Amino acid sequence: MHDHGTNDAERYRDSNLNKVLLIGNPNVGKSALFGLLTGKYVTVSNYPGTTVEVTYGNAVLNKTRTLVIDTPGVNSLVPMSEDEKVTRDMLLTDRAGVVVQVADAKNLRRGLLITLQLAEMGVPFILDLNMDDEAKSRGIMVDQEKLSRMLGIEVVKTVAIRRSGIDRLLKSIQHPRRSPAGVQYDDAMETGVRDISAFLPETNISARSLALMILAGDESLRGWLHANLQDKVISKIEKIRQEVQSKFNNSLGYLINQRRLKKADEILSQVLSLHEAGKGSTIAFHIGRWSMHPIYGLPILAFVLYLVYQFVGVFGAGDAVGFLEETVFGEYLNPWATKIVTFVFPVPFIQELLIGDYGLITMALTYAIAIVLPIVGFFFIAFGILEDSGYLPRLAVMVNKVFKVMGLNGKAVLPMVLGLGCDTMATLTTRILETKKERILVTLLLALGVPCSAQLGVILGMVSGLSGIATAIWLGSIVVVMLLVGYIASKIVPGEPSDFVLELPPIRVPQLMNIFVKTLARVQWYLKEAVPLFMLGTFILFVGHKIGALAYIQQITDPLVVGMLGLPSKAAEAFVIGFLRRDYGAAGLFMLAKGGMLDPIQIVVSLVVITLFVPCIANFFMMVKERGMKAALYMVAFIFPFAFAVGGALNWVLRTLKVAL
Amino acid sequence: MSEHKKMDTIEGKAGHPALCVLPEIEKEDELLEIIWTLREEGTLTWDQILQGCQIDGCEAILRDLAKNGWIDIKGQTVEMRPKGEKRGRELVRRHRLSLRLFYDLFALDGAEAEACKFEHILSPEVTDSVCTLLGHPPNSPDGKPIPRGECCAMFRQEMKPLVAPLADLIPGEKGKIVFITPGSHSRLDRLSAMGVVPGSIVKLHQKRPSYVIQLGETMVAVDKDITKEIFVKKV
After folding, report:
1. DSSP assignment of B24-50
2. A186 touches chain B (CB under 8 A)
3. N or C: which end of chain A has fewer CB within 10 A?
């Protein structure tokens, strides 16, 4: 999800420790098992060159120091997503290790689809049937001995969250074997596989499995192929692939999966027995159902939002910020810093740079650590809980139709919700979206209308002093603007929307350890990536202030702010700052409102304008990085004038209709 | 295995004119069909038949049909005799069912040309299977009635088709996937990795606010369009 710890990942990749890779479908309890095996020493890192988070941990297994890796969940080892590509690449290119395939005992069919691919790859592995308790309670019994004989590898059963079966698992890890279980494909495909295999170099995995990936039309292998083979050979391989494909009506990838599933069903029919099911429906099951019910889903959504608001907005932005800002920084750190700086640097210029109105310590650090950090931190905890509980995909089900209006689908809700925490990070996660069009649309909407938690904190503070109608007008304006801009942009931006296909994991109680680890990694990212930009932003402000540029810009924007928006000229300062960070701008407006310089209409208008601003300079840099300079500049050139135009229109409407707020 | 063989028969000759060079027996078939259609329109006369007929030696074949007891010819008046009636009815039924098959299910251009060939090779059993597969459709795509068969009578009470798009199930109902018409290849690849292949049992969990399907213990939210492409047999 972010850039931190790339070096960690590279270090781990090359270390000489014994290595255990946990591989399996999403939501089969890999992380719980990982937690059991590793304990405390855990790092979350991005796999080099990707945004995919991989968790690494050190453990002593069977008296040997071992590196345990929790790989991203996969449905197939022919990647359809960046996550799946990372897992496949770990098998293909990284130093080989012992593979533990974790499968959901009650969903063995999909597990076997992976098992058969691991067998094809010829990697030594063992199979762990996890969540055996849930399978039993549903009357699903797996004959583990027979399965082990049929696959030719060790098969163990565990219930990771209850530590059951771990001893046997550890014993089995010492005896990984290659599985002889194979799948026979159509003659034409087998010929293709043989022909392609002849061209392939030796790797960690069998040439047969690589050839099958190529046949399946695996785009993600392109880079690897070009790095390892001559162009001439690649075009020969591509020709073979096309020849084989021309003999079939359906895509080869589909036919290969179909054949594998058939084999999986053959195995299942011999090892699976169904008994009278116990009570399959638990409370979690019902919550899962209700949370995407067309009617009950809405109050549940409202309740979840309320809890998040209480946790992040009231507790995080209120109590935690109050404590850090007023007590820790206000009473201790800033006075101390002031004393020390005044003592150490008797030069007024440096003093002002560090502890003045736009001081790096008194403004930037106080702001970044005392105000934004607690809000973002609490948000990350809440987001982690939502993520692990399985609620977020159900939220996508609820909002799918609304997002369709904007040329997107429900999946886009994930970066949007993350944007409520930090738009910069959310812009990075737009990579989970499948088409370029969707990425552009979400990047634009994030920059335009999704307030990040820092800004939201300030905005909610201002709104709380207003009537319900004022709040509704602010919220309504933003929502309408987003829908409208999304709708129009979806017509203008070329490209296709993608299918909405989203797996819904069962609702689960999140594992605290897992959330702790994830939150820590994200906070680290915030400190490393965002805080320096706060410093830079403050420094630019400081310089602007010193050379009088700030006053100059204020002078220019004054007629706009006073004339069009009907705001006092002091508000122009807030907007200028808002160019750098919109939460700074919001904070500036907050001070004005607190000082009684704004009437309710002015508050609402100024809030709408500042909400529609580009979030911060870091977000702009991220837009450039992810979407390219041209696209980023287009968006910014649209957003700022547009924000003022919407504010002006709103001001005119409210004044003309003489709305009393 | 059968994938490519099937393609040859269905797609290989698309676009040819509807009336091709045919063996004698098939020429008779064509004429009986023309007679049937003209009678439906109420314009069945000797001249009309000759006008609608594009086969060489039309007159001779008509005389043969009369000689062998399929039809009666008295001047301008042409009538089907009982065994001609039966044969015509089956032919028209096969033709129009084939049209539906190619037009609806395979979305083929030139469905008319294909149907013209397909009707001659369908056995009665296969015809009934096709009819059942398509849900005993009352009309062909051009709106003309499809003569009912025995299979239709059997299912008269239960007019629900045996095989229907997953989208047509009622939430909570389960079906076995019979076939999938792929809108796009990558879509099919991804769904198949989740177990969506012919033979799998799938349950329609809900339709609103979004379609959610369930396979075994796996729940997947999908677009409505996708559920229209998955054809299931209710179980």
Report:
1. HHHHHHHHHHHHHHHHHHT---HHHHH
2. yes
3. C
Tokens 């988070």 belong to A53
- Residues with Cβ within 8 Å of A36's Cβ and at least 6 positions away in sequence, in order, are A160, A163, A166
> CB distance from B79 to chain A under 8 Å?
no
User: What is the rounded CA–CA span in Å between residue A1 and residue A387?
Assistant: 13
Q: What is the pLDDT of residue B4?
A: 43
Rounded distance between C-alpha atoms, residue A34 and residue A16, angstroms = 20
Q: Which of B3, B186, B199 shows the shortest C-beta gap to A249?
A: B3
CA distance A102 to A83: 16
Q: Give B-chain residues touching A247 at CB under 8 angstroms.
A: 3-4
Q: Which residues pair with B174 in a beta bridge?
A: B203
The residue ranges of chain B whose pLDDT is under 50 are 1-20, 157-159
What ranges do the domains of chain A cover? 6-173, 187-274, 281-661
3-class DSSP assignment, residue A658: coil
Which DSSP string corresponds to B53-100? Answer: --STTHHHHHHHHHHTTSEEEETTEEEE-HHHHHHHHHHHHHHHHHHH
Closest listed residue to residue A176, CA positions, set A327, A284, A53, A19: A19
Reported ipTM exceeds the 0.90 cut? no
| SS3 letters across A571-607 | HHHHHHHHHHEHHHHHHHHHHHHHCCCCCHHHHHHHH
User: CA-based Rg of chain A, rounded to a whole angstrom?
Assistant: 28
- CATH entry 3.30.2010.10 includes domain A6-173: no
% of chain A surpassing 90 pLDDT? 17
Interchain proximity B221–A501, CB inside 8 Å: yes
Q: Which domains does chain B have, with CATH numbers?
A: 1-160 (1.10.10.10), 163-234 (2.30.30.90)
Per the CB < 8 Å rule, is B190 touching A501?
yes
* 3-class DSSP assignment, residue A250: coil
Q: Is B105 on the interface with A (CB under 8 A)?
A: no
Residue showing tokens 């309670």: A137
Are the C-beta atoms of A292 and B212 separated by less than 8 Å?
A: yes
Which of residues A580 and A563 earns the better pLDDT score?
Answer: A563
Q: How many pairs of residues across A and B have Cβ atoms under 8 Å apart?
A: 131
pLDDT reported for residue B184: 66
How far apart CA A361 and CA A342 sit, in angstroms, is: 13
Question: CA-based diameter of chain A, in Å?
Answer: 85
Give pLDDT, residue A212.
Answer: 92
In A, minimum Cα distance to B199 occurs at A262
pLDDT in tens, A163-200: 888 889 999 988 999 989 889 998 889 999 999 998 88
| CATH hierarchy code of domain A187-274 | 1.10.287.1770
| Residues A401, B206: C-beta atoms closer than 8 Å | no
Which pLDDT does position A334 carry in this prediction?
85
- Asked if B209 lies within 8 A of A400 by C-beta distance, the reply is yes
Residue A546 buriedness (CB in 10 A; 0-12 / 13-18 / 19+): middle
Alpha-carbon distance of A515 to A176, in angstroms, equals: 31
Q: Give me the phi and psi of A181, to 5 degrees please.
A: -65, 125
3-state secondary structure of B137: coil
- Which H, E and C letters describe A58-101, residue by residue? EEEECCEEEEEEECCCCCCCCCCCHHHHHHHHHHHCCCCCEEEE
Span A18-22, mean pLDDT?
89
DSSP string, A368-431: IIIIIHHHHHHHHHHHHHHHHHTHHHHHHHHHHHHHHHTT--GGGHHHHHHHTT-HHHHHHHGG
Shortest distance, CA B98 to any CA of chain A (angstroms): 20
pLDDT confidence band for A277 (50 / 70 / 90): low
